[in-house]
Amino acid sequence: MIGFILTGHGQFSNGLKSALDMVAGDQPAFQIVPFEGSEAATYGDDLRAAITAMRAECEEGVIVFVDLLGGTPFNQSMMIANDVDKLEIVTGTNLPMVIELLFARNGATDVTALAEQAVTAGKDAVTRQSLASVMGAADEATDEDGI
Predict the structure, then answer these.
(1) Quick one: 15 exposed, middle or buried, by C-beta within 10 A (0-12, 13-18, 19+)?
(2) Rounded CA separation 36/59 (Å)
(3) How many helices (H) and strands (E) does the chain have?
(4) Among 102, 105, 43, 52, which Cα is nearest to 74's?
(5) Alpha-carbon gap, residue 147 to 135, rounded angstroms
(6) DSSP 55-89
(7) Which of 30, 37, 86, 97 is 20 to 30 A from 133 (CA-CA)?
(8) At what angle do helices 95-104 and 111-124 cross, to 10 degrees?
(9) What is the per-residue pLDDT for 98?
(10) Distance CA 106, CA 9 (A)
(11) Half-sphere exposure of 59 toward its Cβ, with a 13 Å CA cutoff?
(12) Residues 27-51: pLDDT tens digits?
């Protein structure tokens, strides 16, 4: 199995994990490492320990999902990637992306391909909707009797 580490600024990873638990239930080989002000001094060591432990558990590899390109969680993950093989970093993490990947990782053996799938799923999940477009879709679904 490919392991997942979720990290980001403030309550990002805690909140996303809470939503994932609600939608998909508790997941194996899935861990969060929040980057919060009170723990900033130990964050790099905590993230390295989590990635190293997950990598030992998951021989196919590990994907680290981060919130923001260029932020501390991303930068720390990239530094760790210099020392750990089969480690992919995905930025711009969103809920639909992680949900899709949780189910796609069953049987997956190529961590790079799975990370590419994450990018595609994340981009596909970002759309613009308007009331008019939603109401128009509802009008089209209504039959002649208005039901």
Answers:
(1) middle
(2) 29
(3) 6, 4
(4) 43
(5) 14
(6) HHH-TT-EEEE-SSTTSHHHHHHHHHHTT-SSEEE
(7) 97
(8) 140
(9) 97
(10) 28
(11) 0
(12) 999 999 999 976 778 999 999 999 9
* Angle subtended by helix axes 95-104 and 12-24, to nearest 10: 50
Domain ranges of the chain: 3-125
CA 101, CA 118: separation in Å to the nearest integer? 6
Res 140: pLDDT: 58
DSSP letter assigned to residue 92: S
Spatial distance between the Cα atoms of 73 and 134, rounded to a whole number of angstroms: 37
Distance, CA of 66 to CA of 83 (rounded, Å):
18
Using the 8-state DSSP alphabet, how is residue 25 labeled?
Answer: -
CATH architecture of 3-125: 3-Layer(aba) Sandwich (3.40)
Looking at residues 53-66, what average pLDDT do you find? 97
* Residue range 103-111: mean pLDDT, rounded: 94
Dihedral angle at the C-alpha atoms of 49, 51, 52, 56, nearest 10 degrees?
A: 140
Token digits of residue 34:
């929040």
